[in-house]
């Protein structure tokens, strides 16, 4: 009961704080480098951890940490999207470091990481494809992105077909096949390691639409920053799925083509909705400091997990592990 009260208090204070920040910024009440606030995001982890410990112990001090967290989250998010007073442009930055990346698509070599302002606003489109080889039984997809909209939808005859549209930077795709198993590992991510986005009059687009072949057994790893992700995987056989999102809306639809699917979801400040087939047994283990959960039709077990009716006897199973910071988590049966 105390956790529910704290959740309501958190969202109320957070919304009020965020609204006040917008009003203050537009009214020019505060002269401040708003983007510097984003550097203090580790404070959110500390506050969330302390809050979780206090809540589980029933300590009244959790009320204080809830209020602090409700104020800190809007300030940090506000820092991610900062506005430059002199040129009326919004700016968003993210870094993508991958020490294991030895191969980058050749067509991205001519792109300037720090594109001039005159280039920004021009939409660049690319299409990436990889041929589906007859002996491909399993495949691995690694998808990374910063801010934007990302989708995985209906199948393709190719192993993968990805369409990208962006006003900043470019994407690159590499495919490496294991010499022994011939399992391909596909990596699709921004070509530049350091992304700096300056938005003039909201003129920004970053969209990635992915289509996969429905024959292989897939292992998928998705890492996204801020934005919107609509991942319809209902037509694919998935062995293992990992999705990490920051400040995002995530809609995830799972299917029943694999006998067992293991799903790991990591969310920062996000709204996460998962759809699971009714004919599949589903088990959910969740953790997080401040989450609003909707798990209708699931029964809580003695060890804190949630299971669907008939899970133990189901021939096909989906196991979900959810770790959320400040998130809304909903699981629906269809």
Automatic annotation (TrEMBL):
Chain ranges passing through the membrane: 36-54, 61-81
This protein's UniProt keywords: Membrane, Transmembrane, Transmembrane helix
Chain residue ranges for the region called Disordered: 93-129
Residue ranges annotated for the LiaF transmembrane domain, each copy included: 10-81
Matching InterPro entries: LiaF_TM
Compositionally biased intervals (Acidic residues): 97-116
Pfam entry (one): LiaF-TM
Listed name of the protein: LiaF transmembrane domain-containing protein
Source organism: Fibrisoma montanum
């Amino acid at each position: 009961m105390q956790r529910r009260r704290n959740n309501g208090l958190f969202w109320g204070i957070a919304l009020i704080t965020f609204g006040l920040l917008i009003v203050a910024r537009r009214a020019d009440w505060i002269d401040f480098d708003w983007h510097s606030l984003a550097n203090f995001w580790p404070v959110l982890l500390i506050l969330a951890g302390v809050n979780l410990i206090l809540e589980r112990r029933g300590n009244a001090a959790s009320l204080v940490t809830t209020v602090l967290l409700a104020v800190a989250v809007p300030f940090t998010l506000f820092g991610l999207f900062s506005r430059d007073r002199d040129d009326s442009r919004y700016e968003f930055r993210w870094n993508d470091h991958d020490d294991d990346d030895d191969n980058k698509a050749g067509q991205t070599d001519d792109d300037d990481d720090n594109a001039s302002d005159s280039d920004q606003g021009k939409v660049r489109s690319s299409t990436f494809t990889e041929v589906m080889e007859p002996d491909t039984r399993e495949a691995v997809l690694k998808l990374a992105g910063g801010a934007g909209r990302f989708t995985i939808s209906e199948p393709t005859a190719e192993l993968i077909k990805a369409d990208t549209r962006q006003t900043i930077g470019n994407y690159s795709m590499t495919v490496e096949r294991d010499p022994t198993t011939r399992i391909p590992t596909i990596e699709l991510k921004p070509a530049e390691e350091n992304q700096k986005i300056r938005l003039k009059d909201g003129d920004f687009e970053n969209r990635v639409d992915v289509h996969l072949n429905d024959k292989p057994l897939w292992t998928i790893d998705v890492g996204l920053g801020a934005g919107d992700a609509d991942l319809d995987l209902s037509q694919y056989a998935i062995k293992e799925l990992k999705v990490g999102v920051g400040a995002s809306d995530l809609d995830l639809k799972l299917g029943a083509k694999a006998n067992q699917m293991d799903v790991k979801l990591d969310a920062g400040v996000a709204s996460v909705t998962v759809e699971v087939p009714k004919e599949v047994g589903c088990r959910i283990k969740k953790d997080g400091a401040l989450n609003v959960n909707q798990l209708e039709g699931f029964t809580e077990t003695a060890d804190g997990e949630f299971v669907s009716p008939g899970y133990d006897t189901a021939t096909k199973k989906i196991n979900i592990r959810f770790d959320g910071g400040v998130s809304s988590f909903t699981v629906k049966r269809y």
